[in-house]
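Dear support,

We are seeing what looks like truncated structure output for some complexes. This example has two components. We would appreciate it if you could run it in full and send us the complete token output so we can diff it against ours.
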Amino acid sequence: MLKSKSFRAGIHPPSSKITAGKPIERAKIPPFATILLLQHAGSPCKPLVKEGDEVKTGQKIGDSNSFVSAPVHSSISGVVREISTQQSPMGREVQGIIIESDGRDEWVRMNGIAPETASREELLGRIREAGIVGLGGGYPTHAKLSPREGKEIETLILNGAECESYVTADHRTMLEHNEKIIKGMKIIMKVLDAEKGFIGIEDNKMDAIKKMREAVEREGDKRIEVISLKTKYPQGEAGILVKAVLDREKPSGGHFYDIGVIVQNVSTAKAIYDAIYEGIPLIERVVTVTGDVKEPKNLLVRIGTPFRDLIEECGGFRGEVGKILKGGLMGGIAQWKEDVPTIKGTNCILVLGSEKSRLPEERSCIRCGRCVEVCPIGLIPTILGKLAFERRFEECQDYNILDCIGCGSCTYVCPSKIPIVQLIKYGKEEIRREAG
Amino acid sequence: MPELIVSPFPHIRDDVSIEKIMYSVIIALIPPTACGVYLFGVHAFYVIITCILSAVATEYVALRLMGRTFVMDGSAVITGLLLALCLPPRLPLWIAAIGAVFAIAFAKCAFGVLGYNIFNPALSGRAFLTISWPVEMTTWTKPLTYDAVTTATPLGLLKMQQITTPHINLALGNIGGCIGETSAIAILIGGVFLIAKRYIDWRTPLAYIATVGILMLLLGQDPIFHILAGGLFLGAFFMATDYVTTPITSEGRIIFSIGAGVIVVVIRLIGGYPEGVMFSILLMNAFTPLIDRHVKPRVFGVKRKRFFILPAEKEVEK
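Here is the complete output from our reference environment:
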């Protein structure tokens, strides 16, 4: 057995993947679905329907002319009740379309495409039309798969690391849909004209590694290789993953295109399979609903389903609720209300009881250097945080502030409980704002 | 609808705190402390208690005067204890108390709260006492006599009378010297505990001790003697590893330790004092901001290993 690949530094937070053994279940179709018009990085969509319109499942209801954007589709059939400002689980307010279900779930479907005979443009067009965005990061997939002129992409890496505690959505997808992932991967490789494909999976998911290897073998594609990665946070961050798999570093200030690599999430590859072979747009995804709920589950959820419905479907809160997170323990976004809708990038809804939600008291830095020791980028986080707090942004740049990937490892280990990663983020945002 | 707590990520923190680290250091100092009391008797114990109480009381008063809240984080206890461990066993208690007051008031609180001082407080206190009461600070007692029978330290014996002390005595500690510095083994036990807990960087004591050993060997001295004698072990494991006053990167810590090792050798072989650990660490403390400014880890995606960035180079890059 080959040794698992890894990267320098990083952390080992306690892992609680309590839903790893639970097969994906179909969640109930919600009575109301809220389809946000911005579920991705880039420009928001404009609504293509108006209040009172009837819509079908899979019907495109929002689109944009801008390149970095992806259309949105109705995830249920019913009537458009309202188009208004809604709270996004990403923390901001965006326009959303509220659809009331008619309970019939009637579909409109596109035709399937045979990827072997289809042209590159046809495949890319369908990926866009199906509203596919990165199911890890939320960047519109068709835009990511269109590198600038003159940049050759020779390698595709599928990200199956899933290094966040509690989250098992990708894990279950790899166990249950490994063939679709491989087929989706081959479509991406065709679009990119890539010569080599890797699937990186952390070694706490040996069953997924085995299943994926078997699927690759069945497919008989010699270009694809499954790589076992050491279980360590932030193994699933794209730059770190590329480093671990290929020992190549994304240049500071540069792009993955510069080193001939593109990273896609394994679940995105599965969504691409659905869009190409089956003609199904991205209207549902696997969400791990876990933590302090009575019955943690992996649910196949229609986009737009409110968090509240999903928590209820898992038996409701266990004990007194403290936080509801979109995402995992390390990088999750805390919600201030329960009725935010599921968006394309929601891999996990994590409920934390009040005991686990207690906020630590911040103290002054004792220069212990733990943040320096764990930073996978080689920064000096505590100094950066201090400089950013004092608005000394020029000096921040001398300390490579823009190279921070925001993984939060520094903040996790800090004995003084300083929110270092937020201070650095603030500095980065201010520098970018000043640069225009 | 339940009230939800909203806070930025990460939503889990490592189970470590300032208190946890500080009290671990105190636990690690128990072997040399116990050893010192066993070797030098009850007066050594009084010196230790005096230093700790004076240090904590001084910090309390100083922080109150500064209008800040006093937190019993254990750092003042460490300063008091470390100071006591590098004082002569029969030092008058009032001198010990003055040392602790100086260490906390001038070397620590004058710079603000925990985390801002430049020089190691315990060693600053000791340096102050060494200069102010040179006779009392160099009056050593014979171990296990529990009496005021004076003796000299092994380094003093070597420097003044060219007498060497057997290695085994240096390791065990039944020699003349400071309360907590004589037994290398006791200090090593505490140091290894802190390294195992990952509270101190193993590179620091290793680089420091290795530098002294290798240089002494090259200069024709007995390296084992020089490693075990004096305050090198206590300094290497407990003072050169002080977070606040030493570099923040492991590369910087190695440079710090090598520098301190060189200074120890120079003082022991050429200088007027028989021992140089205290001054070596204090001098390198002064270099810490400079080291931190220029020694940075290699940044991901940046090609060269850039230890030193020259101003001219920076211009070119822009």
